[in-house]
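Q: My labmate handed me this sequence with no annotations at all. I'd like to see what the chain might look like in three dimensions before we decide whether it's worth expressing. Could you predict it?
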Amino acid sequence: MSGRARTVLILTGATGLVGRAVARRLAGTERTLVLAARRPATLEALVADLGPEARAHPVVCDVTRPPQVEALMDTARTLGTVAQWVHATGLEVAGDLDQGSVEAWREMLEVNLLSAATVGRAFAAACGRRGGTAVWIGSRRSSWASPGDAVYAASKAALSSLAASFRAEPFAARLRLTLLEPAVVAEGRGAVLRPDDVAAAVAWLLDLPRAVEVTLLRLRHPGDRRPRPPRPRA
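A: Here is what I predict for the chain of 234 residues:
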C-alpha cells in the first residue's frame, strides 16, 4: 500500500437489516469496509450489490467465537488503519417467559451482549494508541417492557450497562463509543424508522470531530406516539 494508509471500518452484523443499510451508506466513502457476518452466501451477495467501488471485503465471522474475531481483526489490519467499528449484530427470538426456550435465550445473550465485549476488546487492541470510534446498535426496547420480548429487552438493557463500563476500562481510554438506540426499525410504511434512517445517524456519528463523543443517541419516528407499558414500581 502506497501513501497514507486508508481508514478501515469494521461492520459486524453486516447482512442484517440495519447492517446492510450501513454498508450501503458508507460504500464509496474514504474508507475500506470489512463486512463481517456468519453466512457466506449472504455476505458475498451484499459485496456484489455494493460493487467494486465500495472497497468492501467480506469476512465470514461468528462474533461469539473469539478465535474468529481475532482472525477478523488480523484481516482488517492488512487492509489499512483500523479506526472505526459499527456493531450491528443482533438476534431476536420472541417468546413468553413461561414458555420460552432457555437455549434461545442463551443465544440471544451471546449475540446481543457478549459479542460486543468480545469484539470490543479485540477492536481496542487493533486500534492501539491511535484510538478509534465505535457505534453499537442497541434498542429503545431496552427501557420498556412488553410481553414476548423480555429476554431480548434485557439483553439490550445489559448492552447499555456494558457500554458504560466499557468506556471506563483503561484499555478503552482512547476509544469513542456511542450506544445508538433506535425505536422500531422496519422496511415499508408507517410510523417506524427505516434502516436508512439509522444508517444516516451512524454515518453522522462516525464523522464527528475527534474531540466530540456522543455516548447515547436515541432515535424514533416523529409519528411514533404509541404509549409505552408502565414501568413497575419498586
